[in-house]
Design a protein that fits this description.
The complex is a heterodimer of chains A (601) and B (719). Chain A has a seven-stranded mixed sheet with strand order 6-5-4-3-2-1-22. Chain A is an alpha/beta fold. Chain A is built from 16 helices and 30 strands. In chain A, α2 crosses α4 and α3 runs antiparallel to α7. In chain A, 30% of the residues lie in helices and 24% in strands. Helix content of chain B is 64%, strand content 2%. Chain B starts with a helix and ends with a helix. With 719 residues, chain B is an all-alpha fold. In chain B, the strands form three sheets. Chain B has a two-stranded antiparallel ribbon with strand order 1-2. A two-stranded antiparallel sheet of chain B has the order 3-4. Chain B has a two-stranded parallel sheet with strand order 5-6. Chain B contains 35 helices and six strands. Classes of the chains: A alpha/beta (601), B mainly alpha (719). The interface between A and B is large, with 58 and 49 residues. Chain B: Its main location: cytoplasm.
Chain lengths: 601, 719
Amino acid sequence: MPEIKVTPLGAGQDVGRSCILVSIGGKNIMLDCGMHMGYNDDRRFPDFSYITQNGRLTDFLDCVIISHFHLDHCGALPYMSEMVGYDGPIYMTHPTKAICPILLEDFRKITVDKKGETNFFTSQMIKDCMKKVIPLNLHQTVQVDDELEIKAYYAGHVLGAAMVHIKVGSESVVYTGDYNMTPDRHLGAAWIDKCRPDILISESTYATTIRDSKRCRERDFLKKVHETIERGGKVLIPVFALGRAQELCILLETFWERMNLKAPIYFSTGLTEKANHYYKLFITWTNQKIRKTFVQRNMFEFKHIKAFDRSYADNPGPMVVFATPGMLHAGQSLQIFKKWAGNEKNMVIMPGYCVQGTIGHKILNGQRKLEMEGRATLDVKLQVEYMSFSAHADAKGIMQLIRMAEPRNMLLVHGEAVKMEFLKGKIEQEFSIDCHMPANGETVTVTTNPSVPVDISLNLLKREMALGGPLPDPKKPRTMHGTLIMKENSLKLVSSEQALKELGLNEHQLRFTCRVQLQDPHSDPDTLHRIYTHLKSVLKGYTIQHLPDGTVMVESIVIKVSSSAEDTNTKVLLLSWSYQDEDLGSFLSTLLKKGLPSGLC
Amino acid sequence: MAAHLKKRVYEEFSKVVQIPHEEAPAKKLRLSKPSKSAALHIDLCKATNSTDALQYLLQFARKPVEVESVEGVVRILLEHYYKETDNSVRLKIASLLGLLSKTQGFSPDCIVDDAINTLSNEKSHQVLAQLLDTLLVIGTQLPESPAVRQRLIEMACKHLSDTYFGVRIKCLQLLGCLGMVDSPLNKDNEGLGTSIGGVRDVQSIISDYFGDQDPRVRTAAIKAMLQLHERGMKIHQIIYDQACRLLSDDYEQVRSAAVQMVWVLSQLYPESIVPIPSSNEEIRLVDDAFGKISHMVSDGSWMVRVQAAKTLGSMLQVSPHFLEQTLDKKLMSDLRRKRTAHERAKELFTSGEFSSGRKWADDAPKEKLDTNTVNLIASGACGAFVHGLEDEMFEVRIAAVEALCKLARSSPSFAEKCLDFLVDMFNDEIEEVRLQSIHVLREISMHITLREDQLDTVLAVLEDSSRDIREALHELLCYTNVSTKECIQLALLELLKNLNKYPTDRNSVWKCLKFVGSRHPTLVLPLVSELLSTHPYFDTPEPDMDDPAYIAVLVLVFNAAKSCPTMPALFSDHTFRHYAYLRDSLSHLVPPLRLPGRKQVYGLDSVDSGSGSGSVGSAQLFLQQSLNRVSTIQNLEAPGAQDLLDFTIRDLQRLGELQTELAGAADFCATYLRCQLLLVKALQEKQWNMAVPLCLKQNVTATAAAQQILEETCKLEFL
């Protein structure tokens, strides 16, 4: 039986460092190639030595697919392609291809220039890597090679995020990347057709959460920000430069406009302007509202939101600052946090998920004293609010996607083990399909039951249609006669005559003959006539002929009568039928063995 | 005088209207005398190849055929049909037959036999489908002939097993449109060699095709069934299961039709009991259907989602706890049955084991999975409205808002619960949705009282730049109940801000405050001194009487004072003066008040109107008559209508001058009729249906007319 193997190198019962290997129909595919936010050593990249100990990866991988531009999904890409070595095709959507290098460059700068690491990929490597990228369009089927094809679906989450449908022959896998089933202020909801893949590999960040209405969350968020501003406090919103940031910007921008507020809103990094530019460009990837109104006014042209300068952090008075990165583990958001942490008037709103080990995770868990580098401790006095704005599907959304795609097996990645376990139970209960949750390096094998396509000759099909009932019923199998020809890797089902002709063979007649002894005191012709009338009464709807040469023909079955040598009362019936009429023939022989009914004249 | 006027109007009226009636039909007859059938015959005989013949037929189809010659034409067409070998020509002829049998006054029973004959000899599937379509037309033209119907239905049953989907679809349509409503259909006829014998009714035949391999046929089958329902046949309850299965079909049009089917059944058998699969629990059918349709609100296709959301709104018999489940995405415990009595005891969870995502780290799994629980509703159906209201497509959101409205109107407790959701919709990004939700809230406002924070959200919309939205909101505020005096203050403040920002809203704001005042007299009372800025000891400067904001405050206070007799004691002197002034100038906004120590000013009106003299009576009669006359206007031809309107307007204006008592009514009617007239004229120009670049120059008149109509209607609204 053919198998599909899935091995996560990262994101197996974990969040971050997404990298999943799939072997399907003899093809090896790498899905995402991310880095881990929580580590600063070798563990931050996936362990590519799993694929091969030495040498380049090109020979072992048929293609690499990147679902979206977040670093935990693409951060290790230059490392893999340039330092480990991979020259094959890399697929990503147009917005991802545009924005990904900006983020990689930013990541490189922080690691190399600020932390002074060596042996890291260079700007040139990023450029070289991006040259290998082939862009994808939504719903466009791309033929990677003769057998492997991939197709991207809209995934919500961030601009350009895609789910991929990977298909080899009749086996298929869907990888969701990160996705969002509820639309937000700037993006639509994920959608997939009923493609019934063999495996659906889904993220499960919010496996145990069912969010209430998004509108409540928006209102709460606006209210909290508004109250803090009116108190004269400062609001810090740590975000990743792209994604949630844009949604919250649109939200605050419209709120500011409506409420006529004057407090400044800042956005921290220079990178954002570049990125916002792309948001303005890729209008087709945004939601209905922005798509409809961008002609009058592009929603991403903000009026109230200005660029942040480091010196502004010490300005008196209220302000709202969006700062990167989102988990407070480094960079500007951490710096601002340190400055503002001492004042209880201030507030930090964590709009998304925080990986274990980051400061964001610590303060959300209620830690009020933090240890910083250099043994200094930091008292956290400001208010800490959490609001699940992160655009991952919640449990309900995951279930909804399963219902949409109707997979045969389910595989959970990108989540915490305990929560996965819980969702796994739910999925198995509700859909009664197998659900797997491999850890990193663990391989899941799923056997598939691929259908084998066979060409059928039209004549044969029509003939069978004419024979059978009114209409073919898709739910009931039907038997038909034909000859299967396997030639040069193709299968053909033709009628036997055509098969003989094609193969240049002579047809052999196969006839069954049998003798049936019958006690009948009449003369031979009389017996024959009696048989004739008997059969005529039993077999209605068949052509039965009494031929002048002393035989009875039922369709093509020949019946002859001769008296036995010893006893004239014992008649010997000779039945002969061809192989094609086996059913009728055997029926007749058993019928005649029972003898003729006595009441027959 | 009035009698004289009347007479003149009648003269004018009869003159204008009757002339066009006489001439029109005579002309038509003369034009069409030459025999159509002969011409067609010659044309068709001339045609050497199929393309030519098609051309002739196409040209022929463009011209109308009169009743007398229809039969002849049909004969000619049939004759050519038998001779014709080309499929496309035969197809065209078949479609022409259908077209012709629709001719008014022509009874198509004479061609039924021929059509059926051609049907049995036809080989091409496309032509077959077209012929069946023709039969459908013929059948619908002959509703009183059961024999013909019976034959047509037999034909349809016979061709149901065709391999081409188009033929099957047409057969199903035929069955749906013509299937016998009253008597069961005897299918045991000659010529039906299929294995089904005995009496089978149309429903079971149609429902066989619910499982057809072609989605188009499945859709047609459901549609046919719906058609039967529309024609008054009672659909059997067994169909319910099949329809539910079709809800998970692969094709959206099937799912969409299935939603309708399930809805129909839920309305027919709301109280029947259906079992829940894999358990021994049972629930009402309408609840089950409600759950299943809720499920469709998160369907993959937005067409289905719209359909489902709309449908939900009309399922009023559903149980309250199922209804409330639509507002919560987590499965509520009362929709889960635990099997053991022990566990039944601790069933009072408010919601399930999932966390809400509002607090950090409350998402650790709490409750272990209990395999013994039975869900009365599929968990996918939870929170249908939460999904619907935050859907990606605004069409779905609007449908959901409308459905919420319908359900909330019939259930006060649900209205209370969905209030928050509706108020949240005021912040929707699409204006139409906001507008719709404001309207909806107004409709259900008798059931609810707004809290301060809700009012806050509502009032924030007053700053919207769209006039439609603001006026809708004013209207909403007219009908809203609020709970505290702070709310009144808040509302007044925001309305004044609104007035300041958009002075054009004056009339609407005043009207709104009138209702707010009369609705909440007790809440206004403690605010009066503050509102009128009076002081117990000091005289305050007299406010400017022409300030719209001050008038707004006064309107609020006076209307509250109407049912609160203690209030006038708080007024200062100038307030009384202003009252007298406003009572005269804005009498529709300021009610008559019983003011202490003041002369009763309001007696005037009532006395006056009672002493109607004879002339007023006749004038009133005249007004009534002319209005009655105008009401027949939709039956008139355009020029006649225009003249009639012109004259009526003139009459009314004159009447207003003559009888001052009726001036208001006459003026109002005249303005209204003027709008009508403008509209008729604008429509008559036929320039609005022209290509855009062409009409740019010429549509000046239309634009001007539109502008004027808008102005006049605006006047009417606040007159």
